[in-house]
Amino acid sequence: MENAPLYLAIAALAAVVALVGTQLVRRVAVTFNLADAPNERRINTTLMPRAGGFAVALSFFLVGATVTILAAPLGLTGGTPLPTSGIAALLFGVLLAGVIGLADDRFDLRARWQLAGQLVIAAVPIAFGVRIATLSNPFGVGDLLIPDAIGLALTLFWVLGMQNAMNFIDGLDGLSGGIALIAATTLGVIALPATPLLAALCFALAGALAGFLRHNFHPASIYMGTSGILAVAYALAVLSLLGTAKVVAALLILGVPIIDAFFVIVGRLLAGRSPYSADKTHIHQRLIDAGLSHRGAVLA
User: Fold this and answer.
1) Are strands 35-36 and 143-145 parallel, antiparallel or unpaired?
2) Which position has the higher pLDDT, 85 or 144?
3) Complete DSSP assignment for 221-256
4) What DSSP character marks residue 282?
5) 3-class secondary structure, 109
6) What is the pTM of this model?
7) Cα distance between residue 215 and residue 50, in whole Å
């Protein structure tokens, strides 16, 4: 933990950049009418600016790139080295995801185009050579090697699944950002002993989310938007692929949105409805129906 002050400084820098960036994005969103209108699926009663998550993506990209460039003088090159291709896939993919999501925030793209954008984003790590190559062996010591074709399919499914899980849980002010903050911090702590640079990147994401949550926690003044959901989900997915804990840890850390998405989708399909239809079966909506306040449900 001798590098703890450095990690805190990285998180603080990312938080400040996201804090200021969110204010700027909010002004742009208001000017260009990037806003969510009230409906049966939303909690807001007035037009609410969105795309605030683009500030998270931009903050993470800028601070992450700076930390990577200065890794040697900052003393972050010890332990297991991160492949250059993996860092490039992480930073480039986050920025691309933010831009693609921004298009949806602006034009309310149809579902087929949203899926096409998610597929493009999910293909980025594969293009850079980042994929799931092993799985933890539940029956013995060591990892299980998997064929390349299966690894590519699992990687695609993992990134797509993360994007949709984060999208499904984004139902209350500060909920998706708060869960992502917990996940990024936990992945950073797990990475500390083995990969200091990866830990620094995780803490940069956590800091960016903390800065954004200043504007997004209830009562929110701006929403994360598709740009933030896609970028943050992608970052968490790839950070878990690059880490020593791999996907298993991320499945545990992000259990709430993953399990929530699974049960909501299955429930809607069993009821003969579209998995994207509106209802109040999400866990956060059940908590509110059980008597918790908006903030209470988010904190729980």
Assistant:
1) unpaired
2) 85
3) SS--HHHHHHHHHHHHHHHHHHSSSHHHHHHHHTHH
4) S
5) coil
6) 0.91
7) 11
